[in-house]
Amino acid sequence: MMSYVEGQNCQSARHALPRASHHRASAQGNARTMLTPGFAPGLGTDARVASGAPDSSEPCFETITQERDFLALEREWDQLWARTHRPQFSHRFAWFRHGWETTGRPRGRRMFIVVMRVNGRAVLIWPLAVHRRLAWQVGAPLGPEFTEYDSVLVEDSPAAADHLRAALGFLHRHCPADLVVVPHARAGSAMQAVLSAETLPGTRHTLPSPLVSFAGFASWDAYWNARSKNTRGNTGRRSRRFAELGTVTYELIEDRAEFEALLAWTLAHKVEWMARMRLDNDFMRTSEFAQFLRVMGTTVTAPETRPGRLVMFALKLGGKTVATKIGTLDALRYEGFIAAQDPDFASYSTGAIAMMECLKWCMARGLEYDFRIGEEPYKLDWATDDRPATTYRLAIRRGGRALLACEAAFLTLRIAKDRLRTSIPAERRRRAKATILNLLGRGKPAQAPERS
Fold it and tell me: What's the start-to-end Cα distance of the chain, in Å?
């Protein structure tokens, strides 16, 4: 029977467990907590305790909280990455390293990385960055901190779900966070299967995660004819009109200087578009996000045949860029992150034209196109499949429950405020606001009548 070992006896451990854990172990006469797969102390089950040196075949955990130890994981990390199910580039070590260096460290996060080994080989890595939210500590994925899939790497094997359950139990006992966030665990993944059955207090929120798979289509025409008549008609008509303006090209940007220039162009146009649409998010306008994309796009370069990289495509008219797409490329897929268009060409739907060209590019190379997270109508127009992604917020401490309660109360108040605002005519709202400001002495002083 497989068992799970914690503590200083874990072979090749680089960083000791939190001090409190060793105080408990010493009080038990250096006993080790042994966990049968699927059991997690603190989650409503009991652990059996044994003593003695762990066998080399017994899985064991270690925690990494120092940057030097994190950097030393690179080789093991990428070896494990290659053994995960359908590995994607945004799980490579470089992604987390540059995310930490451009975002986590500058924001004062504290890394807490759980590594699980069997026979000395890493079979699971759960990278977290802990930060303070109000009076509580929150553990979220270590990295660039934007809309990514869940960051846990687990070896693709029949024991994957058992490893994840044991790691969750380990976090429950040793992680300093009150709340742990697992973002966008996709349907069909081992993580989603484990968390969907989890009994820890928490919340879950599911969004569509559409993709295009060309597996069932013998040609581009077969895929294209399966789209709606409206999509085909509008895109085809505008594409022909756009081509009449001059020479149209669709390019993978390889030059570093051009990448940097077009990155600034892309972010500027994206932020302007979001302002026009009255949209916002937590990362698009931050300097950390721009720096992360710049570093990933200019330092982690590799031919298409290598495990992957962050890439940019540009749709150009007579050499002038009119639309861009930024995403990650690996052996299985293109994963889209940001798209931007020049508003001067909005009547031609250059975003849809760029989408069509990118899909053709992917199909020619046997790649899926991953739209990632969201229910925007255009994604559903192009997609062939959907693997919904669920974000879990797990209270692993009592403080986590309190934080979830505060967040729920805040959300209720915000919804009530929005409903109240929309139910009262705008003119009455302005009058009420002016009256309140006058009562508080903060209204505009009345103007004195002009003298003739």
Answer: 99
One DSSP character per residue, 156-211 reads: SSTTHHHHHHHHHHHHHHH-S-SEEEEEEEETTSHHHHHHHT--SSEEEEEE--EE
Spatial distance between the Cα atoms of 111 and 116, rounded to a whole number of angstroms: 16
Q: At what angle do helices 287-299 and 256-276 cross, to 10 degrees?
A: 150
Nearest Cα residue to 375 out of 146, 150, 210: 210
The first and second tokens of residue 306, run together, are 């290598």
With a CB cutoff of 8 Å and minimum separation 6, the contacts of 129 are 100, 104, 109, 110, 111, 112, 139, 140, 141, 142, 143, 145
Paired tokens of 200: 């820890």
Mean pLDDT of all residues in the chain? 82
Tell me the mean pLDDT in the region 187-213.
92
Say what the pLDDT of residue 43 is. Answer: 31
DSSP 103-171: IITTTT-EEEEEEEEETTEEEEEEEEEEEEETTEEEEEESSS-SS-----EEBSSTTHHHHHHHHHHHH
Q: Reduced to 3 states, what is the DSSP secondary structure of residue 65?
A: coil
pLDDT of residue 306: 53
**Residue length, the chain?**
452
Task: Quickly list DSSP for 248-278.
Answer: EEEEE---HHHHHHHHHHHHHHHHHHHHHTT
- Contact predicate 182/195, CB 8 Å: yes
Average pLDDT over residues 121-137: 94
pLDDT band, residue 405 (cuts 50/70/90): confident
CB burial of residue 388 (10 Å; 0-12, 13-18, 19+)? middle
Q: Which of 325, 388, 394, 372 is nearest to 353 (CA)?
A: 325
For 8, list phi and psi in degrees, rounded to 5. -70, -20
